[in-house]
Amino acid sequence: MLMLAVLVSFETFAHGVDDSTRNFLENNTGVQILPFVYIGAKHMVTGYDHLLFLVGVLFFLRSTRDVLLYVSMFTIGHSLTLMTGVLANIQVNAYLIDAIIGLSVVYKGFDNLGGFKHFFGKQPDPKKTVLIFGLFHGFGLATKIQEFALPSEGLATNLLSFNIGVEIGQFLALIFILLAINFWRQFESFNRFAKATNTALMSAGFMLVGMQLTGFIVS
Fold this sequence. Notes:
This protein is 81% helix and 0% strand. It is mainly alpha-helical. Helix 6 runs antiparallel to helix 10 (188-218). Residues 1-14 have low confidence and may be disordered.
């Protein structure tokens, strides 16, 4: 029962939408800028799959320039597919796209552990991969939004507001992630537990992949 509760909790908060948000999305009328900004920000702050990936991306970045560059690459990809996916009504299976998002977490943990250089002798371009996985993360969210019958009136403006909210939520989450990582970096335990932390990231990613593939098979 405990394991079931954990799995249900994971499913609820990955790309999940609570009942009040679901009711609002399905019954709103016209342009609703502030509510959609709020929903977008809330999704990003509570969407642990995004946060796990960003923890992996930021884990070894030290300069402000690199942080801004990598976060911008993710944001560009995420925004592009979120807007395009919904407005163009491009649909894919939600379980499969979320399984790919789980793989993005596995990838980043494996990359941080030096796995690509060790096993393949070469590391993929980290900036390009962050952009590519940003595309998948945005498409995953677009797929979830498409499950609701959003009114067409004001749809483009509402989606843009939602996307702005996502970026605001991402900015707020990144502040706390960066503060925590930079504080931890001052201690020897940061390097000592870096391997364990990124191994844990990979484990969480594999758990997400398994959960989504199980949902795909039984659905």
